[in-house]
């Protein structure tokens, strides 16, 4: 769900691995979604958020964080029982760049938690939201892939299935750190202001953290 760079990167990578992907947007025949279908194989399709939610076994929320809840609500009960991989961050661009975090979705709360509250029958898993989209789908771009991707969520089986997909994409098991339940999204989303400052200082998104013990 989402037609931006993140949705395009995730969807294209999954198709290259043999998965079928429907890109969802607010309206059918979205220009970016049609371009996504055109450049990918027969395993690519497009539709509304609700159609994409019905289509997928696992749903990726790649919408802008400030609009994620509204976008997901437009999918209705099609999300019930599904695994929802939440990659969005609650960034507030109202004061320009660099953005801050939306006050209602930071510190003692998070977007991941609000999504889980809004969709109690959906298994929300937060991951991949602490990095540039190029690294999401190709961790080997830097450091031989030896850097950290965080994951959190309330359902252990859902996290296990998402980890299997991350392994397919190229993330090594030892570099996927399970932070616990969905409240840990407060920490991973809260990292974004620092990420943005590092990006501004280096001029590149091709960086990540490595856990050294």
UniProtKB/TrEMBL annotation:
SUPFAM superfamilies, alphabetized: NAD(P)-binding Rossmann-fold domains
Keyword line: Oxidoreductase
Start and end residues of each Pyrroline-5-carboxylate reductase catalytic N-terminal domain: 2-90
GO MF, one annotated term: oxidoreductase activity
Pfam families in UniProt: F420_oxidored
Protein name (database record): Coenzyme F420-dependent NADP reductase
């Amino acid at each position: 769900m989402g037609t931006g760079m993140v949705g395009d990167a995730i969807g294209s990578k999954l198709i290259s691995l043999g998965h079928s992907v429907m890109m969802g947007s607010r309206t059918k025949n979205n220009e970016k979604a049609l371009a996504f279908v055109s450049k990918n194989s027969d395993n690519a399709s497009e539709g509304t958020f609700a159609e994409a939610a019905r289509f997928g076994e696992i749903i990726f929320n790649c919408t802008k964080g400030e609009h994620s809840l509204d976008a997901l609500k437009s999918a209705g009960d099609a999300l019930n029982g599904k695994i929802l991989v939440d990659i969005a961050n609650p960034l507030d661009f109202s004061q320009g760049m660099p953005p801050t975090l939306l006050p209602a979705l930071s510190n003692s709360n998070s977007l991941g938690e609000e999504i889980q509250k809004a969709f109690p029958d959906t298994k929300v898993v937060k991951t991949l939201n602490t990095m540039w989209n190029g690294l999401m789908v190709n961790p080997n771009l830097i450091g031989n892939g030896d850097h950290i991707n965080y994951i959190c969520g309330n359902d252990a089986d859902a996290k296990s299935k998402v980890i299997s997909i991350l392994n397919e994409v190229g993330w090594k098991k030892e570099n996927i750190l399970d932070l616990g339940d969905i409240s840990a999204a407060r920490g991973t989303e809260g990292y974004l202001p620092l990420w943005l400052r590092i990006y501004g200082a280096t001029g590149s998104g091709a960086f990540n953290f490595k856990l050294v013990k």
